[in-house]
Structures are given as structure tokens and as C-alpha cells.
Design brief:
This protein has 23 helices and two strands. It has 562 residues and is mainly α. It has one domain: Up-down Bundle (Amino acid/polyamine transporter I). The protein has a two-stranded antiparallel sheet with strand order 1-2. Helix 4 crosses helix 14 (280-308), helix 7 (142-173) packs parallel to helix 15 and helix 20 (444-469) packs across helix 23 (533-561). It is globular and about 60 Å long. The relative contact order is 0.16.
């Protein structure tokens, strides 16, 4: 980032601060970060309870803590269950149908990934009061901001298309045309989001989450084998061995379970719900609960396909979730097929609502416009209009007779897996930015875990790229070689980090009371970020690699989809 760009950033943020001063916006109360949208300050009015803005956050009894958790719960649970969307349901069913229960272990490994990634955005939202897209813009400049938002927009739009594919498949399963189903779903999504405010929206999302519990009776109807589930959940393996197709599916599992949109959504939703640092532990609990719920649901879907289809599996046999529903109806009875169809519809609607909202939040962040569910349509026209436009455009793609919907469904999940390392890198940089988080920056152990996560994700996508360019390569040998290089790289990074570590940890410079009350200063007062030449070069290499990886991933997905 050059000096002129830094000055421009500072001028932009000062303009925002001066505009707020001229508008006579009251300063936030103590312990609340200086937000860019005054709608983000006030009482927490959650789906299951209310917490006053003046509430100290101290809870000593179990009942008091439970009531506080019920009021806070929402952002973490919604972001996690929302990722078990239409594409997720299809991916888990495909994994179970083609590989049996042998890929269940991938879900267990994703629990710490989910918790680590989303805990970091919880801290960013509660401490800064600023959305993910806005922080990237202010700290790293317009280029990286628009690059990140561009990635997010493309991925989110294609993801929303898959949600409407899911809706169409469900209605066609029950004999209703997609030309009726898609418009009805689009109108319902817009009404849910723009029609009743934050509390109404969150209550509707929790109803959808409750509907996802229908996967439990379906799981038992499939007559699962407890021993096989336990074995494959903790013993890594792949039926048929390691192949490029299996690696693509594993990347898709990662991409549908841990997606970039989650980072943007939860940070903005935490802010929109008015959660501050005094409630941060409750929001962390919300996130952990959501992580286990999403993994249990994914494992149930994988097991349903693995055991409910009578062992009929083979690479490439999966067509779509509706065909699997018909197969379950044939094997287990009509109730099983209907239950899977309803689960898919529920997943499609909650996924579409959350993914589309994350995009509208990000647009509002980057362009400095009102973006809050606490505002009416008249107060936030762009926010709600962008939501409606995305929904209508995605609906239109699904209604095109010759659209390659099957390829889109599989490619979107793998694309999310390829893009996630880049999103996680920016998340790591922000969570180590002392100007932004002060005493809330990442501790060394968390940085170590997050670095390992990024390395594994990059390694998986690199395996896919090499296997696509060189189809005759021995994938097992390739995985071993890349793993060895990754371990060497992590060891070198760890050694450098240890040698350059500060003598006094940042958190130790603050008392417990100072840490609880610390919030990010106004953006205009932050010192600009200064990147070293090595870091700048590394980021450019990562971006170049991602462009190549995305192109080749699309080629591979198209080949498999033929």
C-alpha cells in the first residue's frame, strides 16, 4: 500500500466521522465501539429474549446465564446451519452415496476449523462495530477490498443459484413446476428480510433451523450402522483410494461446511444484533453450539445416503438430491423421500436468506451505505434492493431451460474451498492488527492453529490443480509430497514467528477491566497498515495462484459433470 493510498483512506474515514458529527449522531455509550451506522446501537432484541443496552452483562446464576444466552443466540447458529444449504445437502448425499461412510472423518476435522474461523469474526464484530468488508477496505486499501468483495459476490451469487436449484428440485419432486416454485420462493425470501425488522427475521431463521431437525427421524429410517459410523468418523480413509475426483469432493465438503460468506455474514450480523464485548462469551457459545449442530447434521445426511440406498454406490452415480429422495422413497418408503425433500427445501431457504444477506451487508460496508435489518426499506433502499436484485437474478438463472445446474451445484462448493484460504489470510491479518483489536488480538497458539488451517486448505486446492494439469500423476504420492512441503513451510514460519515474538504479550499490558471496556477507536484515528515487500509479494502470489486454481477447478468440475 503506497503513501497516497494511505492518505486517501484516512481522508475517507475522516469524511465519515465529520459527516456523523454534522448529523449530531450521539456518541456510543461506554464499552460500545464507535459504529458507522447508529442503528447498530441500542437494546439487543433477539428472537428469544431482550437485553437492555444498560445491562452490565454480569450473570451469576445458571438461570440468568441461560436467559442471556437465549437472547444472544442467533448469529452463530444461523451462520452454521445456513451453510448446510442446498449445495451442502447435495454434497453430503453425494459423499455418502459414492463413498459410503468413509468420508465422515472430514466433518470431525472441520469442527475446530469452524470454531476458530468464526470466533475470530465474533471478536472483530464485537470489538470494532465495523463489518468485514469495511475493515479490509480501511486497513488494506480499495484494491484488496474490491478484490475480496468481487470474489465474494461471484461465489455468493452462484451459491444463491444453487439454493433456487434446491427449491426447484423439491417442488418438482412433489409435482409442482419450477416456474411456480422459484418465484414463490423469491417473494417469500424478500418478505422475510424486508418485512419485519431484525427480531422477526431472526425468529424466522430459527424456525427454519428447527425444521432442519427432520433429518433426525430420517437418519433412523436409514438403519445406520453405529459401528461403521464410529470407525469412519475417527479413522481417515477413502473408499477406492485417493483420486483427483475424491480430492475434489473433499474440497467441496470443506467449501460447503466452511465458506467465505460466513466470515462476512457473522461479523455483520453480530454488529446488527448490537452484541458488544460484554456479551462476547455468550456469542462464542452460540458459535460453538452452531459448529456442532452443523457437523452433526452433515454427518446424518452422509449416513442417510450411505446406508439408506442399499449399498448401491459408485463414482459418478450421484445425480442430484431429488433423485436420491426418489431412491430413498423406493428403498425405505415414501415418508423417507418426503422427509429428505422437506429437509432440502428448508436448507435451500435458510441458505438463500443468509448468503444473500451477507452480500448485502458487504455492499453496505464497502460503499458506506445503511445496511441494517433494524432499518425500514425507506431508510435502507440500497441494502434491501441489492438483496432483491440478487434473489431475482439467481431465480432467473434457474429458470433458463439449458442452464448447467448440475455442474453449478458441484463447482460452487469446490470454489468455496479454493477461495477460503484467501479469506482466512485477511481474517488472520485483521485479528493480528493491534490498531483494530488492541488487547483482543490473536494469541500465538490461535495463530498457529489458523496458519495450519490455511496451509491444509491451500494444500488441498494445490492437489486438485496439479491433478487437473497432469491427469496421470500419482495422487497419493502428490498428497504426501505437498504435505511434506507444507510441514517444512509451517516449521519455518513458526521459527520466524518465535524469533520475532514480542517480549511482552499485548494482552498482558491491559488489566481485565481495561480489556473488557476496550473498543476500536474511530477509523479516522487508526495508524495506517504498512506492508513489508515480502508480505506484499506473498499476497500477490496467493492471488495469482487462486486465479489459476479457480480456472482449473472449473475445468475439472465440468469434466466430471459430463
Amino acid at each position: 500500500m503506497d503513501l497516497s493510498e494511505q492518505r486517501t483512506m484516512k481522508d475517507d474515514t475522516r469524511t465519515v466521522a465529520e459527516a456523523h458529527a454534522r448529523a449530531h449522531i450521539s456518541p456510543p455509550p461506554p464499552g460500545v465501539p464507535p459504529v458507522l451506522d447508529e442503528a447498530h446501537v441500542g437494546d439487543i432484541r433477539g428472537a428469544l429474549g431482550t437485553l437492555s443496552q444498560r445491562d452490565s452483562g454480569e450473570r451469576r446464576s445458571f438461570r440468568g446465564r441461560l436467559l442471556a444466552l437465549l437472547a444472544i443466540i442467533g448469529p452463530g447458529l444461523i451462520v452454521m446451519v445456513g451453510d448446510n444449504d442446498a449445495g451442502g445437502v447435495s454434497t453430503y448425499l453425494q459423499a455418502g452415496q459414492e463413498y459410503g461412510p468413509t468420508l465422515l472423518w472430514t466433518l470431525i476435522l472441520l469442527i475446530p476449523v469452524l470454531i476458530v474461523n468464526q470466533e475470530m469474526v465474533v471478536r472483530l464484530g464485537a470489538v470494532t462495530g465495523v463489518g468485514h468488508g469495511r475493515l479490509i477496505k480501511e486497513r488494506f486499501g480499495r484494491f484488496w477490498s474490491f478484490f475480496s468483495i468481487g470474489d465474494l459476490f461471484i461465489l455468493n451469487f452462484l451459491t444463491i443459484v444453487t439454493e433456487f436449484i434446491g427449491v426447484s428440485l423439491v417442488f418438482e419432486y412433489f409435482g409442482i413446476s419450477r416456474y411456480i416454485a422459484a418465484p414463490v420462493a423469491a417473494c417469500a425470501l424478500f418478505a422475510i428480510t424486508a418485512g419485519g425488522g431484525f427480531r422477526s427475521w431472526e425468529r424466522t431463521m430459527l424456525v427454519f433451523i428447527a425444521g432442519s431437525l427432520l433429518v433426525i427421524p430420517l437418519f433412523f429410517l436409514a438403519h445406520p450402522q453405529a459401528g461403521a459410523i464410529a470407525t469412519h468418523s475417527f479413522a481417515p480413509g477413502i473408499a477406492g483410494g485417493v483420486t483427483s475426483s475424491a480430492v475434489l469432493l473433499i474440497i467441496a465438503i470443506v467449501g460447503t461446511t466452511v465458506a467465505p460468506w460466513q466470515l462476512f455474514f457473522q461479523q455483520s450480523n453480530v454488529i446488527d444484533k448490537r452484541i458488544t464485548t460484554r456479551w462476547i462469551n455468550y456469542e462464542r457459545a452460540d458459535t460453538v453450539i452452531g459448529a456442532f449442530v452443523v457437523v452433526i447434521g452433515a454427518g446424518a445426511l452422509m449416513s442417510i445416503a450411505a446406508f439408506g440406498l442399499g449399498g448401491a454406490r459408485g463414482i459418478g452415480h450421484f445425480i442430484n438430491a431429488a433423485v436420491t429422495a426418489h431412491a430413498l422413497a423406493h428403498n425405505l418408503g415414501s415418508a423417507a423421500g418426503a422427509l429428505l425433500a422437506i429437509v432440502l427445501l428448508n436448507a435451500s431457504l435458510i441458505g438463500a436468506a443468509a448468503v444473500t444477506l451477507s452480500t448485502s451487508y458487504a455492499f453496505g460496508d464497502v460503499f458506506g451505505l445503511h445496511h441494517s435489518l433494524h432499518r425500514s426499506f425507506r431508510e435502507a433502499r440500497f441494502f434491501y434492493s441489492s438483496f432483491g436484485a440478487l434473489v431475482l437474478a439467481a431465480m432467473g438463472i434457474v429458470l433458463i431451460p439449458s442452464a448447467p445446474l448440475g455442474v453449478i451445484t458441484e463447482a460452487v462448493q469446490a470454489l468455496a474451498g479454493v477461495l477460503l484460504p484467501s479469506a482466512t489470510v485477511f481474517l488472520l491479518l485483521l485479528c493480528n492488527d493491534r490498531e483494530v483489536l488492541g488487547p483482543w488480538v490473536n494469541p500465538p497458539w490461535l495463530n498457529a492453529i489458523a496458519s495450519l488451517i490455511v496451509t491444509v486448505l491451500v494444500g488441498l486446492s494445490l492437489v486438485l490443480v496439479v491433478a487437473t494439469v497432469f491427469p496421470s500423476v500419482n495422487v497419493t504420492t502428490l498428497v504426501g509430497a505437498i504435505s511434506a512441503l507444507a510441514l517444512v513451510g509451517l516449521a519455518l514460519v513458526g521459527l520466524v514467528s518465535y524469533l520475532r515474538r514480542p517480549r511482552v504479550q499485548i494482552a498482558e499490558e491491559y488489566t481485565a477491566a481495561e480489556r473488557r471496556s476496550w473498543t476500536m477507536p474511530p477509523l479516522a484515528l487508526l495508524e495506517p497498515v504498512r506492508w513489508s515487500p515480502a508480505r506484499r509479494a506473498a499476497m500477490m502470489v496467493l492471488r495469482l495462484y487462486l486465479v489459476i486454481a479457480i480456472a482449473l477447478m472449473v475445468v475439472k468440475a465440468t469434466q466430471i459433470g459430463r
